[in-house]
């Protein structure tokens, strides 16, 4: 069905994709979290109008 070299290669690719997906999800979570907190602090400081933020 599959020889060992091919399956090993696909598993290495799958491993890389899996790690990259985890890294990307973590990266996006950090970015969105920092964006949210900075937006909230700007909102509290009164730099951003509430209706602009909520729209």
TrEMBL record:
Designated name of the protein: Uncharacterized protein
Gene: ORF70224
């Amino acid at each position: 069905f599959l020889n060992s070299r091919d399956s090993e290669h696909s598993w290495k690719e799958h491993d890389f994709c899996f790690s990259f997906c985890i890294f990307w999800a973590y990266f996006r979570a950090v970015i969105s979290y920092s964006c949210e907190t900075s937006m909230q602090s700007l909102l509290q400081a009164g730099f951003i109008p509430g209706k602009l933020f909520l729209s």
